[in-house]
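Try it yourself: sequence plus flavin-adenine dinucleotide, in.
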Amino acid sequence: MDIVVCVKTNPDLQMVRVKDRVAVTEAVPYKIGDLEKNALQAAVDLRAAAGGKVTALCLAVGNRKAAEDVKVALAMGADEAVVIDDPALAAPDQAAVATALAAAVKKIGACDLLLFGEGSTDNYSGQVGARVAEILGLPQIGYARKVEAVGGAVRCERSMDDMLETLEAPLPAVVTVVSEINEPTIPGLMQIMKAKSKPLQVWSLADLGLDAAQLAPTREIVSNLAEEQDRKHILFDGSAAEQADAFVNALIKEGVLGR
Amino acid sequence: MAAVLVYSEKVETARELVAGGKELGAALGLGVSAVALGPGAGAAASELAAAGADTVYVSEDAAFEGWPADAVAAGLAQIAELAGASVVLVGSTRRGKETAPRLAQKLGAGCVSDVNSLVAEGGDLVAGRYAFGGATVAREKLGTAVKVFAVMPKTFSAEGASAGAGAVETPTLDVSSSVKVVDRRAKEGEHVNLDAAPRIVGIGRGFNAREDLALGDQLAAALEAVVGCTKSLADFEWLGEDRIIGLSGAKTAPDLYLSVGVSGQIQHTVGVAGAKLIAAVNKDKEAPIFAMADYGIVGDLYEVVPALVERLKSV
Ligand SMILES: Cc1cc2nc3c(=O)[nH]c(=O)nc-3n(C[C@H](O)[C@H](O)[C@H](O)COP(=O)(O)OP(=O)(O)OC[C@H]3O[C@@H](n4cnc5c(N)ncnc54)[C@H](O)[C@@H]3O)c2cc1C
Ligand SMILES: Nc1ncnc2c1ncn2[C@@H]1O[C@H](COP(=O)(O)O)[C@@H](O)[C@H]1O
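Structure, out:
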């Protein structure tokens, strides 16, 4: 089973600070999103069971080092990586990302299963997988927490609002995964070294037969600001009992307790 | 008349969106039509009309059973054309969220998902949603002829809505799904509603073992609070998904949120930003949760929680 895993590199959100209500991403390192690591792990596990090849596919957004950052996917077990990097894609919307990824999937050729995260770390819009499925005319299963290959199909379990479902889609298909599907393994030094010799290609839009006008964003971000939070920031000290006492007294004074 | 088209497989959410869509439509000069899909869906038509729908499109086609994304997106696209829709509002449940972008792609439309505010400004719609894991709120506009918004449940209220004409249309649609249902069953177990809880004890990975969660229960009982958790504990299946607080769980607004063994990453804390008071127990005084707390107890939860329970006995 040949699998393409779509991975995005994002600023590491744990290192993003808010200053004057604006998220500061300059100088913040990028990394592959957590959910895409789950998707990669699922692909590696499927390959162990069903054979085939795993390709990591990344469209570089706002990050000129994506080809470097994507090597983590190779260390995690992908056989090869493809990065779409083009200056015209500085701030693409989800339709543009999906269009470029779908074109790359066609160029990669053999692909039985396309894996995505349920959402990307910074956007978490959950749009790209469904849009790629539509462009390529493929069936889609979202929010998979278990994926297995059965004959010419992929079988997934998922939890949807108030239902538990087991679904089967004929291959090729698009599947998006949630975090509980697995615990991604952290690559060791050996895997990181081995990753250096794995194939990694960088494609431009022209390589995909696309031009920038087709991918112009149709979305305008009017503003993107943190909401104001006004908190007291009182840290107690002392023994557990002393702190518990001070805290409960504070809650009584606040009117939360004891009325 | 061109229309705002509203769809959710959850009738309650659809009613809210019809009421909200009617107000937005009035500002934009658009009527509001609703869609009900799936076997038995026709029963909802009168409720959708009562919430304000001028027209209700009903299809009970068997392909909509279980609302598969490919079939629903295709059906909605066909109805959008019939209705002359320039705005489509879809409930941002998991099903809605996987369907809306596929529909948008079919319609050549832009899409904003997880919308938690939608307002008409200067003849256009501006949608608010969290970005950077919840650290900021992005306000976005779409430049396409048709615009799709996946809107979170409870963004609008159907209370006091004035009824629409509610003409029922039953179009014949060309729909099918290639996804096969092997098994589908209702989730078991109790359901908690964190949205309305006045006090919440939020527990996280600081708890070493499932058995230890009894400590969290004791603290919650002493505070007459409901237990919520981080996604990590739900991923371990120690607690059910409906207890998750945050970006992919409940957005709460209690009088008191007390976190225990929670680091306070933004995807979690966005779900408690509306709390009147935030307090935290964490053994690491550098934990990010303290940066957004009113009161912080630095210590080992295995000592602090019993001390709290003991102290609360005399309140
Ligand atoms: C797209 C996306 C969506 C997400 N959505 C959500 C969401 O909706 N809700 C959510 O919660 N998470 C969500 N997450 C996950 C989130 O990023 C964090 O991973 C998660 O909230 C961390 O959970 P935690 O605080 O329990 O665990 P950790 O981050 O591991 O923190 C455990 C904390 O416990 C403390 N601790 C350890 N032992 C003790 C002790 N004995 N006494 C006291 N303190 C102790 C530690 O100091 C640490 O601060 C999402 C992630 C992504 C990528
Ligand atoms: N720039 C990108 N490159 C590769 N894959 C992406 C990119 N953006 C999004 N994806 C994939 O689409 C999923 C959903 O992204 P989003 O729609 O942004 O929430 C992610 O988890 C990735 O699998």
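One thing you can check immediately is this: The longest helix of chain B spans residues 11-28.
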